[in-house]
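ok so i was messing around last nite and threw this chain in just to see what happens. nothing serious, just curious
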Amino acid sequence: MRIINRHPSRGLSVFLAALPFLALLIAYIIGSNARLAINPADKILPSFAQMAATMHEYALVPEKRSGEYILWSDTLISMWRLCTGLAIAVVISLVAGVAMGFIPWVKAMLTPFVEAFSLIPPITVLPILFIIVGLDEISKITLIAIGTAPFMLRAVALGVDEIPKELIVKAQTLGASTWQMIVRVVLPQVLPKLIVATRFALIPAWIFLISAEAIAATGGLGYRIFLVRRFLAMDVILPYVVWITLIAWTMDMLLALLQRRAFPWFQPERTK
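result:
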């Protein structure tokens, strides 16, 4: 049997999926032990005990100056910015995307603009936002929104275009208004695709968030990483990177769960 036709069992799949993580973990332990054996004060590859001690202080010991728990304070600040920016992008994408895909006049007017706007690297807009709206929360939230909205908007518009024309014709034959067709025909078809687009938008959203926090912020996960980098505090940076990864993974899993629960019929074909 050819290897392309041989599928691993469920248990073997879990083992194979864990192998790269185990390899990375072992490589880090070996590298860390080697550097610490030469220089116990080495900061580049701290031991897991050092990172655990630092995170215990950040998560469970209040800061003397502000009384805040640094890890949780940074997390709440970043999550507020990220979720608000994504929420704005979702609303814009749903409203404008449905209009672009369903109403020819709107499509003719907005499609060229959206296509051109989506080619602008969002991070280059950040200095403009700082100049126009200042260094407060609005600039960071706006960057996330304008950085992710064009991609999701085009995904929604494409989802509307992919709706079978027969459904639209039948709805019109039965006397449905434009609004009724949007609510009863279009939205059920494009909402699961919007969730998929939002999952893909999580990666650029995090990039824009960390970039904005690194340039101008007084709190947040990205702010903390770039604040301590001048001290080579890898015992803070590495756990923060892992923490961000866990948060992003959790958000992706929650969106996937929402898609399965709200739209159980929208499932990709699974390989047996």
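not much to say yet. Residues 255 and 261 are 10 Å apart (CA to CA).
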